[in-house]
Specification:
22 helices, 545 residues, 15 strands, single chain, globular, 2 domains, Rossmann fold, binds 1,6-di-O-phosphono-beta-D-fructofuranose, alpha/beta, 9-stranded mixed sheet
């Protein structure tokens, strides 16, 4: 395989580990924990994995361990650093005992169910160190949540002598990892399950998890592109660029990119919801800024739009909630089957309440169809398919025309998502991911199950990072999903009283009026630490206590 010069140089990079993981460790256990909500219900559903203590690894005595075979699964959307989680896990498992083996299940959780796997040897691992992508074993979105799947999984785990499974995924996948841990514990199958916090969306974070891996690299990649567009736009002075940014639900990516690039406008879905804004209010907000800049002779600008915006507009959110209910078969909890798209739309229209039907009919046809038809395997609306950037610019153009303002308004459209999900991990993600994987091996060696691997204090130099584990049940509450109440990890949305948003809110009027663009440039892998090792602005604001 031909490799780029950067790939060759980067292969030699040795990711940094927290000091405690550089030698033998002992697990320092805290007090019993509680779930973040619905304690009695979660305790009842997870009798074997509820209430476990938070664990921190500190330097300990060297011990001899038997070889241990471990399985690993990549679940859901790609995020930079996945290969380093696996290489950290590999090195950790081999350091426990060199005869230990690591198996990768192919193309996500489905690989476990369908018994598709490969042994990950040193040669294979070395090919993938510090690279982006999930292609070492591939990923998938199969939901691991049924007893039949768990039973099929245990057959192959037994055949390969696997005693622990590491599931690298987002909130849904880690919820399912916990359900699996509980199931195997209840059945006394002797297989531990450990989760790792992955997603570029940045919405798997809480008191215990500082950030999900991949967020850092993805945001830096998008910010480079936004910076380049801003320089072009400030040079040509004739276009408004409408830039949609990935992030299925929360607006963390859009907000972080705004903090890095200082665009003229950045919408934050959580604020749109809190202020109960309608689609028309959002359009007016943009149109007013475009008009004000035009009045000063500035016929250009940038608008950042979070992918999930549509879902946060209260009237549309209410509509989606009812769509999720009516499109789920109450008998099976699965999506209903329809003969054709037209049949599905007709069913939706006759089943939903009058006010929701009115909202549906007020939307442009393509958006209305999208909402009625497309679902991912978790039952979520596929917001990434809705072209909000075009929808908004179309509506802004119409509004400006109606009111006779900004006659020179011209728009360009972009959607940044896939461009950043497989970028070569930044130093932060390379180190963070390697540490998460290596640390997972220590949770396994210490007999833990139903835990997520965590690394904290990551705005400090890597040696000062703190590694350990948090029981997944601690992050759970009960939420309504696809027409049923389910135990799930609480998703972290942008907090409007949090430091990152407050900084943005304090500066956005100035950024709207003036041209205050920042051009971050590409991620640097070699060079001065202030250029190469900066964590995200979000993390810096959140941690600046
Ligand atoms: P995960 O939550 O699985 O990490 O995926 C996040 C994401 O990249 C979202 O930002 C985006 O909405 C979605 O995946 C796109 O999904 P797909 O990869 O199926 O196109």
């Amino acid at each position: 395989m031909t490799k780029s010069a950067l790939q060759i140089a980067r292969a030699a990079y040795q990711p940094k580990l927290p000091k405690a993981l550089l030698g033998p460790v002992v697990a320092k256990e805290g007090a019993a924990t509680q779930s973040v909500g619905d304690q009695a219900k979660i305790k009842e559903l997870f009798p074997n994995t509820y209430g476990l203590p938070v664990v921190e690894f500190v330097a300990g005595e060297a011990k001899d361990y038997e070889p241990i075979n471990v399985g690993v699964i990549l679940s859901g959307g790609q995020a930079p650093g996945g290969h380093n989680v696996i290489s950290g896990l590999f090195d950790g498992v081999k350091s426990i005992n060199p005869a230990s083996k690591l198996y990768g299940f192919i193309l996500g959780p489905g690989g476990l169910v369908d018994h598709k796997y490969m042994e990950l040897t040193a040669d294979i691992i070395d090919e993938y160190r510090n690279t982006g992508g999930f292609d070492i074993i591939g990923s998938g979105r199969t939901k691991l949540e049924k007893e039949a799947q768990f039973e099929s999984g245990i057959e192959i785990l037994r055949e390969l002598g696997i005693k622990a499974l590491v599931i690298i995924g987002g909130d849904d996948s880690n919820t399912n990892a916990c359900v699996l841990a509980e199931y195997y514990a209840a059945k006394k199958y002797g297989v531990q399950v450990i989760g790792c916090p992955k997603t570029i969306d940045g919405d798997l974070k809480n008191e215990q998890i500082e950030t999900s891996f991949g967020f850092d690299t993805a945001c830096k990649t998008y910010s480079e592109l936004i910076g380049n567009i801003q320089r072009d736009c400030n040079s040509a002075r004739k276009y408004w660029h409408f830039i949609k940014l990935m992030g299925r639900s929360a607006s963390h990516i859009a907000l972080e990119c705004a903090l890095q690039t200082q665009p003229n406008i950045c919408l934050v879905s959580e604020e749109v919801e809190a202020k109960e804004m309608s689609l028309d209010d959002v359009v007016n907000y943009i149109a007013d800024i475009v008009a004000a800049r035009a009045a000063e002779g500035n016929h250009f600008g940038t608008v950042l739009i979070p992918e999930g915006l549509i879902e946060f507009i209260p009237a549309i959110k209410k509509l989606i909630k009812e769509l999720n209910e009516v499109l789920t078969d109450p008998a099976t909890g699965e999506p209903r089957d329809f003969g054709s798209a037209e049949e599905q739309i007709a069913f939706v229209k006759k089943s939903i309440a009058k006010d929701n039907r009115a909202v549906l009919e007020s939307l442009p046809d393509d958006v209305a169809r999208q909402l009625c038809l497309d679902r991912d395997p978790h039952g979520n609306v596929q917001v990434s398919l809705i072209e909000t950037e075009k929808l908004l610019s179309r509506m802004v153009a119409k509004k400006l025309k109606e009111t006779g303002r900004a006659p020179k308004f011209n728009a360009q459209h972009h959607f940044f998502g896939y461009e950043g999900r497989c970028a070569a991990p930044s130093n932060y993600d390379a180190d963070y991911c390697y540490s998460l994987g290596f640390n997972a091996s220590r949770l396994i060696a210490n007999g833990k199950t139903g835990y997520m691997s965590i690394v904290k204090n990551t705005t400090a130099p890597a040696v000062e990072w703190i590694a350990g584990g948090v029981p997944i049940t601690m992050m759970m509450n009960i939420e309504r999903r696809n027409g049923a109440d389910k135990p799930v990890i609480r998703k972290a949305l942008v907090e409007l009283n949090g430091a990152p948003f407050k900084y943005f809110a304090a500066h956005r009027d100035e950024w709207a009026k003036n041209t205050s663009y920042v051009y971050p440039g590409p991620i640097q892998y070699f060079g001065p630490t202030e250029v190469c090792d900066q964590p995200t602005k979000t993390l810096q604001f959140e941690q600046a206590k």
